[in-house]
Recover the amino acids of this structure.
């Protein structure tokens, strides 16, 4: 970041002296006002719940222009990455800042595939969960537990440890998600098959059994790879900020990523794809497309508490570019599987059409987000709804770890410690219990 020509002056109506604050520019996007010395100079904090106007770090990884509907990983538009690259190239890009050439890609892919197995003891840990546990409950536990199994990669201040933990996390997340699934349906765990692609191997671990050969469908493999690319990073969203905040205390990378998994679980974040598919299934069960109008009235009624899941985004106030790509993939997968007339897909399209024309959604700039179509694709592939957020966590792991490593390497990084505006009781004396 560099100092802008501009400076900000903050003045106060009570006659307190005004303060001058430096302004910094990034390479693109809004400038930032540096308020680090504000408390020292004025005795005041700033107030910004939900971080609507606060840049908590500088980052060179992902850039979003919400008004234009633009998403760039290290400068490359998501449309080009999703069309011309695969997930391994995208991981390399996010972690190291550049797209690999063929030799670099081969080396990186080999490194990842060499770490796809998990310590055999982990399955006994997994077996402690109830069979009907939510996969995200299991994932939070398993990812955190990696720190108990890989002691040689837990020192966040050691660059070698950070590097190997990044590779391990990217390599092992698909294995853990597939193990959580196999456990829930009572099937044997399938060991990774390293001759397959990253997405192909995940499909194998999910859907193969030891009884018969499993052939990966290339359309589904490509669709899953695209889901991974589209979810790989999204700048300082809730789970990424959680990973940064958690990691800022110096905790180990596995613990920090487990915190990200926990945050992602929420329905306002990664859990939205599960919530979106549940919503579509409920409308379908209540009468399908004919009930769309009635449902939309509920969504627009503030007292109903009903939201159109898969719609709206904190940053995109234009179309989410990932939603467009996901809709394309949705068409491809449903056609390849002969499911073009899938009722949920028809329902989703009917909801989208109404919403895009309705004044309520138009005036609030609410558009479909990536989750609106990703659930339909995953369901068509055969992934159970409860596992959707686990797939998201798998894909986002590379983004989390890239952001965590960027933070540790930033000379300006400090433990995260937000302030508060205290509105509670002034000091008071504890009365004896008989007098309260
Ligand atoms: N359905 C109906 N109304 C909505 C929706 C929705 N999905 N989203 C926002 N609104 C309304 C709000 O009620 C509010 O209306 P008001 O101004 O009359 O009070 C207005 O639009 C602005 O909404 P906010 O909640 O202030 O927007 P915010 O940026 O805080 O929230 C969020 C964004 C959380 C994503 C929200 O749009 C939402 O809950 N969407 C549904 C869940 C979802 O799909 N989440 C996925 C996010 S993408 C991801 O994590 C991959």
């Amino acid at each position: 970041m560099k100092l802008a020509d501009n400076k900000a002056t903050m003045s106060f109506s009570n006659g307190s002296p005004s303060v001058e604050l430096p302004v910094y520019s990034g390479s693109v996007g809004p400038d930032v006002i540096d308020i680090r010395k504000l408390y020292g100079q004025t005795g005041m904090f700033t107030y910004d719940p939900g971080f609507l106007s606060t840049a908590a770090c500088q980052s060179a990884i992902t850039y979003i222009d919400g008004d234009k509907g633009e998403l760039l990983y290290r400068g490359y538009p998501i449309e080009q990455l999703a069309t011309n690259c695969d997930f391994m190239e995208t991981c390399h890009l996010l972690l190291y800042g550049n797209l690999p050439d063929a030799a670099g890609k081969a080396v990186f892919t080999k490194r990842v595939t060499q770490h796809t197995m998990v310590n055999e003891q982990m399955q006994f840990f997994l077996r402690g969960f109830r069979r009907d546990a939510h996969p995200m409950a299991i994932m939070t536990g398993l990812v955190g537990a990696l720190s108990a199994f890989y002691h040689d990669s837990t020192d966040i201040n050691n660059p070698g440890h950070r590097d190997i933990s990044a590779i391990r996390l990217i390599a092992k997340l698909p294995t853990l998600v597939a193990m959580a699934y196999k456990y829930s349906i009572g099937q044997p765990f399938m060991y990774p098959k390293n001759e397959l692609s990253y997405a192909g191997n995940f499909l194998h671990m999910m859907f193969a059994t030891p009884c018969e050969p499993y052939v990966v469908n290339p359309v589904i493999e490509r669709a899953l790879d695209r889901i991974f690319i589209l979810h790989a990073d999204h700048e300082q969203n809730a789970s990424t900020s959680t990973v940064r905040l958690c990691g800022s205390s110096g905790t180990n990378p596995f613990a920090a990523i487990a915190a990200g998994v926990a945050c992602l679980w929420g329905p306002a974040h990664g859990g939205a794809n599960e919530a979106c598919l549940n919503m579509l299934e409920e409308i379908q069960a209540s009468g399908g497309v004919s009930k769309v109008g009635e449902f939309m009235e509920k969504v627009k009624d503030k007292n109903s508490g009903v939201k159109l899941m898969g719609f709206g985004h904190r940053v995109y106030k234009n179309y989410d570019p990932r939603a467009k790509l996901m809709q394309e993939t949705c068409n491809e997968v449903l056609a390849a599987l002969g499911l073009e007339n899938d009722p949920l897909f028809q329902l989703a399209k009917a909801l989208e059409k109404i919403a895009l024309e309705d004044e309520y959604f138009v005036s609030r700039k609410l558009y479909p987000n990536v989750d609106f179509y990703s659930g339909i694709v995953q369901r068509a592939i055969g992934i159970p709804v409860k596992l959707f957020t686990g797939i998201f966590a798998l894909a986002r792991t590379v983004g989390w770890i890239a952001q965590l490593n960027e933070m540790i390497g930033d000379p300006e990084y400090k433990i995260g410690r937000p302030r508060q505006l205290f509105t509670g009781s002034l000091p008071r004396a504890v009365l004896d219990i008989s007098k309260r």
